[in-house]
Amino acid sequence: EPQNKVIDTVFLAKKYMKHAPNHKLETLKRMLGIRLSSHNAFDDCITCAAVYQKCASIEEETNRKSNTEVLDETAVYEAVKKILVRNKRDIEWIRCMNVGSYLDIKAFYPVMRVKVKGRKKYVLTEILEDDVKEICTSLNCEPALKSEVGNTRIMLNSLEDVLKLESYILGQYDFVLRALHDYKQSEMNADEKLKEYLNIMV
C-alpha cells in the first residue's frame, strides 16, 4: 500500500477557489491558463500541482492580510494569547487592563505593556535597544520617555510585528509565572488575592 502523503486538490479548490463555476479539473485548468491535454495521467498530475500551488498562494496571502489587519488592543491581546497557546503555555492567568493610554497584559504581574492608541504604536520594555535587535533585526525601536516605565519602545506597524516578539513574550510570561508561583508559596492570603484578580480582571 502506498505510504506517500495524499493531497485532495478538489477539497483545496473548493476551499480556496470559491469563485470557480465548478471544481472539475478541466474547469480549473482553463482558469489557470494551463494548455495540456485532459485524461492523461501525467498532464493531470501537472494540473493538480498547479491547483495546489494556487491554493497555497491564496492561503499565504490570506494569512499575510490577517497579520496586517487592524492593530488594536483586542487584536494584540488575542495575538499574545495565541502565541502562548501555540507554545503550550497555560493562559488561565492571562488578563488585560487599561492603564491610562496603555494596555497592560498580565498574569497577576505585568507581562507586557502596549500602546496602540494614538499615532505611535509600541511595546514598552525594560530591555535595551541591542537586545531588541537580537530578538528580531527588522523591528524598529526608540528610547522610552522619562515619564514611561521602561527603557525601550519597540515600534509596532502591524500584528506581524507582535508575532516577531514571540521569544520575548514567552520569556516574559515564563518569568512572571515563576514569580506568581513564588508568591503563592510565600504569601499568607495569596489564594484570596489571586481569586480577586481572576474575578476582577477581564
From TrEMBL:
UniProt entry keywords in alphabetical sequence: Exonuclease, Hydrolase, Nuclease
Coiled coil: none
GO molecular function (one): exonuclease activity
Recorded superkingdom: Bacteria
NCBIfam families: PRK06807.1
Known role: Involved in the transposition of the insertion sequence.
Protein name: 3'-5' exonuclease
